[in-house]
Specification:
207 residues; Aminopeptidase; seven-stranded mixed sheet; 35% helix
Length: 207
């Protein structure tokens, strides 16, 4: 982790700078989640039909908030398991809780799968998702030291696709017509980024 990947050497100063800003981006910062807080806000977000459509979630009622809280508490009982990490995402200016990201790690193959979500509509399409993903990748590649990061999304979610491409992800595959939405079948897309590709981007990042 000292800064090399397949012959690519990362200057020590750049590594120190990235580590210093590990939990803080240009627009958001991340922090460990309180299960009760996540259950409450996620129960509200999943009442938004557009959030549900894009996230492929099942709408839940406020009565389901307790079930969400119990699930998150169970994950947090003895500290997070090594293969799963979750963070709350808050704005830098007003410290508003706008979303979350989760990282699942395959320790054998040194691969991570990530998922992010912004539940507050007023923050959609304004660069917050890209900033969130940059922090997610920083954590995955510097703290978890994985070789690659992967994710999946619906083909009709063009805003998310553009955001992931800005963060450095490349389209790697497509599953055709595997999802039914509003009477129409849609494809699923699969994207990935390698550690070396991410490190090259950091060298050119002026942040």
């Amino acid at each position: 982790m000292a800064g090399s990947s397949q012959g690519l050497v990362w200057p020590k100063t750049k590594m120190e700078e990235t580590m210093k800003d590990l939990f803080r981006g240009k627009l958001v910062h991340i922090m460990a989640e309180e299960p009760e807080a996540r259950a409450k806000v996620e129960a509200l977000w999943q009442r938004d039909s557009e959030f549900v459509r894009l996230a492929d979630s099942v709408p839940i009622s406020m009565e389901s908030e307790k079930k969400l809280k119990d699930r998150f508490n169970k994950q947090d009982e003895n500290g997070f398991k090594p293969e799963r990490y979750s963070f709350a995402v808050r704005t830098l200016d007003a410290d508003t809780h706008i979303g979350f990201f989760d990282i699942g790690v395959d320790l054998i193959h040194s691969e991570a799968w990530v998922g992010i979500g912004i539940g507050e509509r007023e923050f959609w399409g304004k660069g917050y998702g890209t900033d969130m993903m940059k922090l997610c990748l920083q954590y995955a590649f510097t703290e978890l030291n994985v070789h690659r990061v992967s994710l999946g999304l619906h083909a009709f979610n063009e805003r998310a696709l553009r955001s992931y491409e800005k963060a450095g992800f490349r389209l790697e595959g497509r599953t055709r017509q595997d999802l039914m939405r509003e009477g129409t079948r849609s494809d699923s897309l699969w994207m990935g980024i390698l550690r070396e590709e991410w490190m090259q981007m950091q060298m050119g990042d002026k942040r």
